[in-house]
Design a protein that fits this description.
The complex is a heterodimer. By secondary structure, chain A is of the alpha/beta class. Helix content of chain A is 39%, strand content 16%. Chain A is globular, with a radius of gyration of 27 Å. In chain B, the strands form two sheets. Chain B has a five-stranded mixed β-sheet with strand order 2-1-5-3-4, with helices on both faces. Chain B has a two-stranded antiparallel ribbon with strand order 6-7.
């Protein structure tokens, strides 16, 4: 495909050329090809669908489209039939013949594969009526599951690159920046710094110093349990690219980078493909859309260091040096990559840009909280993508307007806590975020409320925990993660984390002393004061927030040597309730260390000295006869 | 150059815009402890011991004096209770790794730490990075680097082997505040295996002297020039080569060349 002009783009959007593919078919079968569904073998499902449609002679009417992540990862592989809007879950290749026959041939939706909310019997056929989707507001993820991310024409057909067209033909760089400023868009990577102000500073720095500025997209998403950026790139890579081109136009960059994790092969491939297509179309490279603007993007792979998500470390890594942060007293918008003014934004921030330019700042500012038109710091506008994981029924990727409450996210969209357990805490903001308790459930989710509550927005990980989670162990887990990932450059982060971890390890073994909580607090405060980079200053958040909201659990571990949630192995032991045990022998079979003895149909006994507390017997026991009890220290 | 006004520990002073707080404080005779700082190297800001409190308007933040560029109207507190608490903790943390290092023991005594709360470790290296930086920034040899991450971080040559590119200048050992670098001897031993006509004096390898051969078979402790460098200039020749004392070094170059014939 040769270069396109603005006229050509209009044709693709209308009914010319290949864009028409999108609407030519009577029915579209959308198969989710996000990483979650791919690992659930959705490619096999797609292949089976294509063969079956061919076999039934429907290939002129129905088209199979592999889309990006639909978000409802817990229910994959997901298939959606459009224009009916019917949602099917867990569609395996073997189900395909029945599905095609029922829905596509006979026109009767296939009930067996529809989604039924937990605890109900009536399946919900329509996607938009499923509670998981109903409360979401799709801005960044507008094209998720609707277009084929590997085809640029699909993106153009849904108003793609229209914002670019508008910006290049009708707007000056200053107007673009002022539009972004008025929209109140704040950085989605965690810091929440207003994007418009950053762009403006970068543009000024470049003009002042007569140096070419650089644009960077941070796709080095390293938080445990977070996959927003991956999904955005997988489902709509062109939106990110368009955002970057708009940014380049506003700031005056000729060179851009996407720094992406090596662990994201699908996202990387789709992004590289998108860049190639955009280059072919003349949307990247020299003389973009014949307007005289030059800009190109290079994809750079990270090697999987958590710290490289920090902007200065990322830039060091881009330059080919060791990925370690430096002091940010002189900002990267002035001296960044190779000492050039560098504007770095996160994937999600970039993906928001085209819509702001297309729909206007007012539209964007109308979503979310606060009045941001005058001062972007005064609220949080737009939406936020979260990866909702942990002990919640509907795990997956969600996009919600800022200001929604945690309760709505966890109980309405997430469908509550599974297996009859109760909610205990939600961890937001990745490993450096904090754990918020039940009392904060009605708090609005936005940058400032979360920070005030001792957590943070972060990049958007949201881990739900139930009553079977030990908060001390959670803090220990995150501190252990950060100890492993700390670059070790500055003393407070390297040694502070190590000493915190030592104390936490002591507490979960029941060997903590009463001074330990005070020490943890002091270590955390000094780390907040003294660490070199933001990862270090926020690294103590897991400890601080659990100390603030769950101090009782720390005290139970230290004073009573008990783990209230029954998680810390050295504080519990397993025991068999003789009244409930019917001698079914199931536990004996699964015990890998042969700690359970007893004959069939007779009461079993457990040798506590051999038991490794792996929990396999509890899962195997159908009569609930095996219990975790506090370890008896008297014995 | 634009001048700014600021206040350090109550003293009002003027300085050039973007001078580091450490420089301004030193001129005023205010002592701020440093471990990873060297006046001829780029500020690195990793030991954090030079942390000071900076107030501007309503905001208070803790910054490292060695690399924080002062701006107009700020108020710096170099010894507030918060600064003292933070520094104490940092000393204790460092001692939990390197419990028997002289510089840390002196600092501990100064800050009233009798016994560090996190124990005393047996390491020598405080990971200040002075050796790594002198080798790359001044010598330009890039022999040393940091390896591993987090708590396992260490200074080493590539793959931990005796380096092929080390010129044996000893600048790393010279700047080391804890005297823990012992690599020099191995490199010098390697030089000794070279044929006689290639045994260049290490000052010539450093670019300080021109093409002289070593008369002492790299037993530097026998070298008269080295002794004189040390006694009279009180610094390592590699720093002189890059600092302003060019006249002095010229004298020494001549003497050196005369000696070598």
């Amino acid at each position: 495909m040769p270069r396109v002009s603005i006229e050509d783009l209009k044709k693709i959007r209308g009914n010319g050329k290949s864009g028409a593919k999108v609407i030519k078919f009577r029915t579209q079968v959308l198969v989710c090809a996000g990483t979650g569904c791919i690992s659930g073998k959705s490619f096999e499902t797609a292949k089976a669908l294509e063969t079956e449609i061919e076999k039934q002679g429907l290939s002129r009417e129905a088209q199979v489209v592999k889309t990006g992540c639909q978000g409802f990862c817990a229910e994959g592989p997901i298939v959606i039939v459009q224009p009916d809007g019917i949602f099917y879950r867990g569609v395996r290749a073997k189900d395909v013949p029945q599905l095609v026959e029922a829905h596509l041939l006979k026109g009767k939706p296939f009930e067996k594969l529809m989604y039924t909310p937990p605890g109900q019997h009536q399946p919900i056929p329509l996607l938009k009526e499923i509670p998981f989707f109903a409360k979401q507001k799709l801005v960044v993820l507008r094209n998720r599951g609707a277009i084929d991310p590997e085809r640029i024409d699909d993106y153009i057909a849904v108003e793609g690159y229209k914002a670019l067209e508008k910006a290049l033909t009708q707007m000056t760089p200053e107007q673009i920046i002022s539009e972004i400023k008025k929209s109140g868009l704040r950085g989605r990577g965690g810091g929440g710094f207003p994007a418009g102000i950053k762009w403006e500073t970068c543009r000024h720095a470049a003009q002042h110093r007569h140096v070419d500025p650089v644009l960077v997209c941070n796709a080095d998403e390293g938080d445990p349990g977070a996959f927003m950026d991956r999904s955005i790139i997988e489902s709509d890579p062109h939106a990110v690219l368009e955002g970057m081109i708009l940014g380049a136009c506003a700031i005056g960059c000729k060179e851009g980078f996407v720094y992406i994790r090596r662990e994201y092969p699908v996202a990387r491939e789709r992004l590289s493909k998108a860049i190639e297509q955009a280059r072919d179309y003349g949307l990247l490279g020299k003389n973009i859309l014949d307007t005289g603007m030059d800009f190109d993007v290079e994809v750079v792979q990270g090697a999987g260091a958590f710290v490289c998500g920090e902007s200065t470390a990322l830039m060091a890594s881009l330059e080919g040096r060791v990925g370690e942060p430096r002091a940010k007293y002189i900002h990267t918008v002035e001296y960044g990559y190779k000492n050039r003014p560098t504007n770095l934004n996160n994937v999600e921030t970039w993906a928001n840009v085209p819509l702001i330019i297309h729909n206007g700042a007012k539209w964007f500012a109308s979503i979310g909280t606060g009045d941001v038109a005058e001062n972007p710091w005064k609220g949080s506008s737009g939406t936020k993508v979260f990866s909702l994981v942990g002990k919640v029924n509907n795990t997956g990727l969600i996009e919600v307007p800022m200001g929604i409450t945690l309760r709505e996210i966890i109980f309405d969209i997430g469908g509550g806590i599974p297996d009859g357990h109760t909610f205990k805490a939600v961890q937001t903001g990745g490993p450096s975020g904090g754990c918020l308790p039940e009392t904060h459930m009605d708090m609005p989710v936005d940058f400032d409320s979360l920070t005030e509550a001792g957590s943070m927005m972060g990049s958007g990980g949201m881990i739900v925990m139930d009553d079977q989670t030990c908060m001390v162990e959670v803090a220990r887990y995150f501190i252990a993660f950060l100890t492993e990932e700390s670059c070790g450059k500055c003393v407070p982060c390297r040694e502070g984390l190590r000493s915190s971890l030592e104390i936490l390890n002591r507490i979960i073994r029941g060997k903590g002393t009463e001074e330990d909580t005070g020490r943890l607090q002091e270590i955390a405060e000094v780390m907040q004061d003294c660490c070199l980079c933001a990862l270090g200053t926020s690294a103590s958040n897991p400890v601080l927030s659990t100390l603030r909201y769950f101090k009782k659990e720390y005290e139970a571990h230290i004073k009573k040597h008990q783990c209230p949630a029954g998680v810390c192995k050295e504080l519990i032991e397993y025991s068999i309730d003789p009244e409930k045990c019917d001698g079914c022998h199931a536990c004996v079979r699964v015990c890998s260390v042969h700690a359970i003895m007893g004959e069939v149909k007779k009461e079993h006994t457990l040798d506590k000295s051999m038991c490794i507390k792996c929990g396999a017997c509890i899962e195997a026991c159908k009569r609930d006869a095996i219990r975790k009890i506090p370890r008896s220290y008297a014995a | 150059m634009k001048m700014i006004k600021l206040k350090i520990d109550g003293i009002e002073t003027e300085a050039e815009d973007r001078t580091t707080i450490l420089n301004i404080a030193q001129k005023l005779g205010i002592k701020i402890p440093t471990l990873c700082h060297h006046p001829l190297l780029e500020p690195y800001g990793v030991c954090r011991i030079c942390t000071v409190e900076v107030r501007s308007g309503k905001h208070t933040r803790m910054v490292t004096a060695c690399n924080y560029p002062a701006t107009n109207g700020i108020e710096v507190l170099t010894n507030s209770p918060r600064v003292q608490r933070d520094r104490k903790m940092i000393i204790e943390w460092m001692m939990s790794q390197c419990g028997h290092v002289k510089v840390l023991e002196n600092l501990a005594a100064e800050y009233g730490i009798t016994e560090p709360r996190y124990g005393r470790g047996d390491d020598d290296c405080i990971l200040c990075g002075l050796c790594v930086r002198v080798c790359s920034e001044i010598v330009g040899a890039n022999v040393l680097g940091f390896f591993n991450r987090g708590a396992t971080r260490e200074v080493s040559t590539a793959f931990g082997e005796t380096s092929e590119i080390c010129i044996g200048c000893g600048a790393c050992a010279y700047v080391c505040p804890t005297d823990c670098l012992k690599m020099e001897a191995e490199t010098l031993a390697r030089f000794r295996t070279l044929p006689g006509s290639e045994r260049l004096c290490r000052y010539s390898l450093m670019g300080v002297a021109e093409g002289a051969l070593c008369a002492n078979s790299f037993r530097c402790w026998k070298c008269e020039v080295e002794q004189r460098f040390h006694d009279q200039l009180q610094t390592h020749p590699i720093f002189l080569g890059r600092s302003m004392k060019m006249k002095e070094i010229d004298v020494y170059l001549n003497q050196l060349n005369e000696m070598r014939g």
